[in-house]
Amino acid sequence: MGLLTGLLFGVIVGIGLVAGWCFAMRCRSKQRIAKAANIKLLGKMSQDEVKKLLYDAFPPWVIFPEFERVKWMNKQLEKVWPYVAGAAQEIIRESVEPVLEQYRPIGISSLKFDKLSLGRLPPQIEGIRIQTLKPGQITMDMDFRWNGDASIILGIQTLVGASLPVQLKNLKFFATIRVIFQLSENIPCISAVVVALLAKPKPEVKYTLKVIGGSLTGVPGLADMIKDLVEDAITDQLEWPHRRVIPIGGLPVDISDLELKLQGRLTVGVIKANSLKNMEMFGRSDPYVVAYVRPLFKFKTKVVNNNLNPEWNEEFNFDIEDHETQLLTLQVYDEDVGQKDALLGIVSYRVAKLLPEETKEEVLDLLPSLDKMNVRDKKDRGTITVRLKYHVYTPEEQKAAMEMEKKFLEEKQKAKEAGMIGSTMDAVGGGLTKAGKFVGKTVSTPFGGGGSRKAKSPAHENGIVR
């Protein structure tokens, strides 16, 4: 009797365990199917949608990779780098030395490469993003990193005749490079290549300077000169929308669609500033404003002496090449006789905020630096008030503006050769200096109901806006 009872109890317990296990597996399967459906739905959501869904619970380590890893390309680049470096050195020398001459700062009569070697360590391409933005073109964005062993010596000749060999050591370069391939029906199926550096993330160049047989302290301001030269040259020559267009295949091709064209004119009225920081031990600062979209086309206002709430009421015009990406930069300086002018504040403004033919008056907060990560002095720098208007060029206006821009640069180069300005990077305007009278073409014109000076940009000729 006991045996039968035990067997019966065992059977019942066994059936119960099997039934419980089957039920648990069925529930688990349903949960997994539901979770898979949720993950599939989550995978279709954008980064912004996921952040909005999770709100504060969004973990900072979650990323949405946009670039595809290309380890195979880095392996091949490592093999061919000795040959690429040898060819690139001559190309860099031929193309960069004219740029160095164009952006050569005041106080330096000659700036050339005494030695240029790209070293043995190749750059690394961390990732590639391929997209098709226009028919007949392939756009490739490359996350470029180079921490190489380049050996570069700049031969600097000063105006007093001193020769300074300056070595650039520990050169590091980080940027996102945009390469656009113009497709063709003829072999090699590519008619031209466009190369540019994307503005975001900001291209970064790091290096250390050493004067061979001397010290940097023996040449005051030399390190800052070279730093400004590198930044201005990269921004003005290679940073998008500026680019290099390279024909491929040796056959004549039409690359006019790839070249940079002027889109419109930005009119900037520099009205006044308020509550500027005083940089003087005795008295007050003597502020003036430098305004530019491209560093090569800088204009400056008159100097208002001994005033922390100056009024300028001056108007400048700038050609715009890319309405969506370009920035207007405003720098407020304190004029110091006999030494470098002190920066009172700086601010940038996106041209994309302006609609065509719309006039806006903006009060902008001045910052110690545009590089917010390295700002130490976070005290209030005051504000600057500007009036802005964007005008889209017609085809006729575009052609005339491009001709005037070319003429403007030629005049600045002549002024530099004549010793009227120290560099083609010098700011023009105000009619207060010899350079302003020669290059700035300042004329008197009413602005904002009061007297002012209107400095003509390349978009102007004979006082008439084209």
UniProtKB/TrEMBL annotation:
Coiled coil spans: none
Organism: Selaginella moellendorffii (Spikemoss)
Entries under Pfam families matching the protein: C2, SMP_LBD
Example of a GO MF term: metal ion binding
Family, as annotated: Belongs to the synaptotagmin family.
GO cellular component, one term: membrane
Bilayer-crossing regions: 6-25
Organism lineage: Eukaryota, Viridiplantae, Streptophyta, Embryophyta, Tracheophyta
Record flagged with keyword Membrane: yes
Subcellular location: Membrane
InterPro entries on file: C2_dom, C2_domain_sf, SMP_LBD, Synaptotagmin_plant, Synaptotagmin_SMP
Region Disordered: start-end pairs: 446-466
Keywords: Calcium, Lipid transport, Lipid-binding, Membrane, Metal-binding, Repeat, Transmembrane, Transmembrane helix, Transport
PROSITE patterns linked to this entry: C2 (PS50004), SMP (PS51847)
Domain SMP-LTD per the UniProt entry, residue ranges: 66-249
Membrane topology: Single-pass membrane protein
GO BP annotations listed: lipid transport
Listed name of the protein: Plant synaptotagmin
Domain C2 stretches: 247-364
